[in-house]
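[audit] Reproducing an earlier prediction to check determinism. Same input, same settings, fresh worker. If the tokens differ from the archived copy the diff job will pick it up downstream; this log only records the rerun itself.
[audit] input (164 residues):
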Amino acid sequence: MSLSSERLIYKKCVSSDVEDYLLFGTNAEVMRYVTPRPLTREQAVRRFEKAMVINGKNEKLGYWLAYHKTTKVPIAYLKLVKMGQDYHEIGYLIRPEFWRQNYGTELAFAVVNYARSLDEVSKLMGIVLIENKASKRLLEKCGFDFLKTGVFEGAKAEFYKLNV
């Protein structure tokens, strides 16, 4: 099974996708929900390079870009990666011009359904900065339950879990 949904085409990232990724990684409005400070271009490129190492090591897990099926415009950047021994983390970045158009719901359900098709995935984790109310609602809509409050990448965050 592959990652798919109604309006989006999902492409597993390769190194040549760096410029599309930078639409997310250097966007201060997007990154305010991910890191305490916006990333510089150099920091974003380094982050993407680390993602490409993960993509190179695992055929089924990693990082994807989601493009609109008709316009081919990059809408989102997402991940499904191993997190510790028990969990796999789901994460997503959506360009602000596509917020409040249900792309988050569409891609989150697509990732959850994809994760359910993988034998090695039994528990998902979603990590949301405290102020990101929209992502909290989205995870709950997908069936995630609140697990705990903690710190992630230097910021106060909430951790959500889902057994798949």
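[audit] rerun output stored. Observation attached for the diff report: Strands lie at 8-12, 62-68, 74-83, 87-94, 123-129, 145-152, 155-163.
[audit] end
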